[in-house]
Design brief:
Elements: H1 10-24, H2 29-44, H3 51-69, H4 75-105, E1 114-115, H5 116-145, H6 151-171, H7 176-192, H8 194-230, E2 235-236, H9 245-255, H10 257-260, H11 272-277, H12 291-295, H13 297-330, H14 336-346, E3 349-353, E4 360-364, E5 379-385, H15 386-389, H16 394-405, E6 409-415, H17 423-430, E7 437-443, H18 450-463, E8 469-474, H19 487-498, E9 505-509
Parallel strand pairs: 1-2, 5-6, 5-7, 7-8, 8-9
Antiparallel strand pairs: 3-4
């Protein structure tokens, strides 16, 4: 049983991504190693039984430090009251919409009974249609795309949350611009990291939509109930089609099958005589109509809204709550950034000297390296864009990569960064052994566009989720050599690539290596 301290909520994810994004902008990794290792040794060692709990306790400590050092609230602090209010707001909107629709449909002047066909269509068939869509669309997305969460639901929830957060923060005298920027970035990362949080965000949006639908359904049912109890409702049916009373009675009996076994007619549905007696022929007037026949339809409408409108929404809301809890239990918190953070805390670090560039790095004492490390890559498959390869440039790139990573075995190939054109190359790479890393060189001075992210997703599907994929960013070529990507561009690329949520992805910057 998780304790309140260890239980994760969406504001916790937003703050976690906020801190991880801040850490990604720190170039000197030794600063992060010292900080996180000290936190672990002094306050976390022996307390957390799993990586999930350790991340949560680390987050709590970082929050304490941040709140003590800064005057502005954290993104999660701004988001939390909005998240508490949002379900209540959506429930109220659903109740208002359902009450308004039912009240308007059931209102009549008394000179003409309520049109039963129009009423049943608006209060039962139309809500049932939208309930069916809320099942069919996620199922279709799951079959076609492998994910049940839709873009519209996540966007709608995100947009509402951002507006609410702005209002809350403005009431407290905070700066709306800074809060919106922080929240927009954090929420975008949260939704973008599909490999980690898509199920949590998807079920969260789905639950809110089902809650709104349930509120609408309950409002319709209660309005029909109260109007029938305290108002002299009268229903009739008329049509220009050649429908007999027997045919209408047969259809109504089939619709009432789920509840007709519980109560007998006319408390479940009108009898054949009542169906015939409530038919209106406008040219003949209303004098022949029986008041009892007109009122018998109220029971049928009441049962219809309960069985076909309220019960399905109540069931789907229960499913959404169950799915959301299951999604939280199954969230892995395993990707390149969180795994690196856990290694920084749990693995003892020893200081080693590097002859290259005269720098000093930290590596774990057990010989495994952080996710961002370039050491230990003795064998990998390299992919070079044709724009960088040039004429006869693959051999030069092979030599450069061997020097860059001190690798003994580097196989190399050219790609167009278009999945359809690189189909054969991608198949060849996918056929390689799992222990062979795949390295893709990209120009870091150019922006990371959506097409590049889609290409990387395609490459990941070919490689499988566990095979190591390394992105190496190079600067603009100068005098036949490639410099490192400038810090600002490299930081932007890291944030964009982090949105992939790829736990087996490493991002490295190019380093100038002496050719002597």
């Amino acid at each position: 049983m998780p304790t309140p301290e260890s239980k994760w909520q969406i504001p916790d994810l937003v703050d976690l991504e906020y801190f991880l994004s801040q850490d990604a902008g720190i170039e000197d990794e030794t600063v992060l190693i010292r900080r996180d290792r000290e936190l672990y040794r002094s306050r976390l060692a022996g307390e957390a039984s799993s990586g999930r709990d350790l991340l949560r306790r680390w987050l709590n400590l970082r929050r304490e430090e941040a709140r003590a050092e800064r005057s502005a609230p954290l993104p999660g602090d701004i988001l939390d009251p909005a998240l508490r209010l949002l379900p209540k707001l959506l429930f109220a909107l659903g109740v208002l919409a359902g009450t308004s629709l039912a009240w308007g449909v059931l209102s009549y002047a008394g000179d003409l009974p309520i049109n039963l066909i129009a009423t049943f269509s608006l209060l039962v068939i139309l809500p049932l249609f939208f309930t069916s869509l809320s099942v069919a669309l996620p199922g279709w997305r799951l079959v076609r795309r492998g994910s049940y969460s839709g873009i519209f639901g996540g966007w709608l929830v995100g947009a509402i949350l951002l507006r609410l957060c702005e209002r809350f923060y403005a009431l407290g005298g905070g700066d709306q611009t800074s809060s919106r920027l922080a929240l927009s970035e954090s929420w975008g990362i949260l939704r973008g990291r599909s490999g980690l949080y898509s199920r949590v965000v998807g079920w969260f949006a789905y639950r809110l939509m089902q809650l709104t639908g349930l509120a609408f359904s309950l409002a319709v049912f209660l309005t029909v109930l109260l109007r029938g109890l305290f108002t002299d409702l009268a229903f009739s049916w008329q049509t220009t089609a050649k429908l007999s009373s027997e045919l209408v009675y047969s259809v109504v009996s089939r619709i009432a099958l789920p509840w007709s076994g519980l109560v007998d007619s006319p408390l479940s549905h009108p009898t054949l005589e009542q169906v015939a007696g409530s038919r209106v022929f406008l040219k003949e007037g209303l004098q022949s109509l029986s008041n009892a026949d007109l009122q018998a339809w109220w029971y049928f409408l009441l049962w219809g809204t309960l069985v076909y409108v309220v019960f399905p929404r109540l069931f789907l809301y229960g499913i959404s709550r169950w799915g959301e809890r299951l999604a939280w239990k199954r969230i892995s918190f395993h990707d390149a950034r969180t795994d690196t953070l856990l290694r920084r805390m749990q693995q003892a670090q020893v200081k080693i000297a590097k002859e290259r560039e005269g720098s000093q790095d930290f590596c774990p004492a057990d010989g495994t390296y952080p996710a961002e490390s370039r050491d230990g890559l003795s064998r990998f498959r390299a992919l070079i864009p044709v724009e960088l390869a040039g004429n006869g440039g693959l051999e030069r790139w092979q030599a450069e990569l061997q020097r860059q990573f001190e690798a003994a075995d580097v196989s190399i190939g050219a790609v167009n960064l278009v999945a359809e054109q690189d189909a054969d190359q991608l198949q060849s790479v996918a056929a390689g052994p799992q222990e062979e890393a795949v390295l893709l060189v990209l120009e870091g001075w150019q922006p990371c566009i959506t097409a590049t992210l889609e290409y990387l997703r395609t490459l990941r599907r070919h490689l499988g989720k566990d095979r190591l994929l390394i992105i190496t960013l190079v600067g603009r070529e100068q005098n036949g050599t490639w410099p490192a990507t400038p810090d600002l561009e490299f930081s932007v690329w890291k944030k964009r690539l982090a949105s992939l949520g790829d736990s087996s992805l490493q991002i490295l910057n190019w380093k100038r290596v002496s050719h002597e």
